[in-house]
Amino acid sequence: MKTPFYYYDMALLDSTLAVLTEHAKQNDVAVHYALKANNHPRILQKIAARGMGADCVSGGEIAAALAAGVAPASIFFAGVGKRDEEILLALQSGIGAFVVESAAELFNIEQLARANGCIAPVLLRLNPEVDAHTHSHITTGLAENKFGLAPDDALALMPHLIQSDALSWRGLHFHIGSQIREAAVFEALCHKVNHLLSLFRTIGYSPEIVDLGGGLGINYAEPQSESIPNFAAYIQRFRMLIEANGARLHIEPGRSVVAQCGSLITQVLYIKEGKTKTFAIVDASMTDLVRPALYEAHHQIQLVRPDNWTIPASPVPIAMRPYDIVGPVCESSDVFERDLLMPELKRGDYLAIRSAGAYGAVMASSYNMRPLAESLFSDER
Ligand SMILES: Cc1ncc(COP(=O)(O)O)c(C=O)c1O
C-alpha cells in the first residue's frame, strides 16, 4: 500500500476489547466507546460486536455507531454545540441519553422533543473542577473550560427537568480530560463525584446513571511494555470509590481502547544534512497525525521492515545517530520528533509511528491538498 498509511493490529484490538469488556462485566460497569478516538467502520464493528455502547459528539458519529450495529439505547450524545438536525436524528433514532452541557441546550432539546412527540432522555454534564494534570488542550474539567454545567446551575435546572413532559432525567455525567496517567487524578474525581452525588441526593434527586467519562491514558513512550492499558485498576477504582447507591456506573474510554493497535507507516523521502541537524524527511505529515504539532505529543518511532509492520527492523542496538523526523508540509510545527536516536536512515526506509490508533486518522486534514492516508488491517493481509 502507498505510504503513508495507518496500520491496525486487529489481534491486539481484539485482546484489548476482551480485557476491557471482561473487567467491565465483573464490576457491572457499562462501557460506551468514544467514537471520536477512531471511527473506522472496521474498528466500530468489532466494538459493537462486543456489545459496547457509544459516546458520540455529532450526528455523523451517531450514524456511524448505528451503522456499525451499536444498539440505539446504548448511544449517548455529548458535546457543547448540538445542532437541531443532530438532535432530531438522535431523537428519531431513540438514543439512550443526551449529555446536556448548558441550560440553553436543555431548553432547545426539550422544545424539539415536544414538537416531535418525543421524550428526550437527559444526563446533565457537571463540571467537577478537577484538574486532570494533562496537556492544557485536553483538559476539560476546570471552571475555565467550555464543557459542562457548574453544579449550582445544574441543580437550578432540576425542578424544570423533573417536571418537563418532554424530558426525562437519567443521571449525571463527568469528564475531566484525556491522557490521564495518574491514579490520584481519578481518585480526586471520585471524591468530587461523591460530594456532588450527595448534594443531589439530599434534595431528592437520585440518578439512575453516573457516567465518569473517558480519559484513561496510555504509554506512548514504551507502547510494547503496556500494549493493553490497565483496565482492571481503572474500573475497580471507580467501583470501589464511587458511592453508586444503586446507580449504574458508565465509562467512555476512547484512546485507551484503540491507540496502541494503530501505527502510522511512513517512508523516508530524503536525508537532509543541515548545519546543526540531520533531518529525515518522511512522506507522512501533520496532516496525517497532528498530535505532535497540536499537543506537543511524542510517539515512539521505529524503523520497520515491510514484511511486518509491528516488529522493529533492528531489535539489537546498532550505531545510532540523532535525526529530526519531519514531514513535507510547509509549517515549522510539522515535526514528529527532534534529536531522535535512530539507526542510519536512508531514502525508502519504512518507519512506524506507534500508538497512533487514537486521535490519528480522525484528525487528519487535506491541508496542502494532501490526500488522506488509507488504512490497512492486519487481518486483511
Ligand atoms: C465526553 C467525553 N467522553 C469521552 C472522551 C474520550 O476520552 P479518552 O479518549 O481520553 O478516553 C472524551 C474525549 O475528549 C470526551 O470529551
UniProtKB/TrEMBL annotation:
Residues 5-357 form the Orn/DAP/Arg decarboxylase 2 C-terminal domain. It holds the Pfam family Orn_DAP_Arg_deC. This is Diaminopimelate decarboxylase. Keywords: Amino-acid biosynthesis, Decarboxylase, Lyase, Lysine biosynthesis, Pyridoxal phosphate. The keyword Amino-acid biosynthesis applies. The modification N6-(pyridoxal phosphate)lysine is found at K36. InterPro entries: Ala_racemase/Decarboxylase_C, DAP_deCOOHase_LysA, De-COase2_C, De-COase2_CS, De-COase2_N, De-COase2_pyr-phos_BS, Orn/DAP/Arg_de-COase, PLP-binding_barrel. It catalyses: meso-2,6-diaminopimelate + H(+) = L-lysine + CO2. It comes from Porphyromonas loveana. The active site is at C330. GO terms for biological process: lysine biosynthetic process via diaminopimelate. Its EC number is 4.1.1.20. GO terms for molecular function: diaminopimelate decarboxylase activity. Its cofactor is pyridoxal 5'-phosphate. It comes from the Bacteria. Pathway: Amino-acid biosynthesis; L-lysine biosynthesis via DAP pathway; L-lysine from DL-2,6-diaminopimelate: step 1/1. Residues 27-259 form the Orn/DAP/Arg decarboxylase 2 N-terminal domain. Belongs to the Orn/Lys/Arg decarboxylase class-II family.
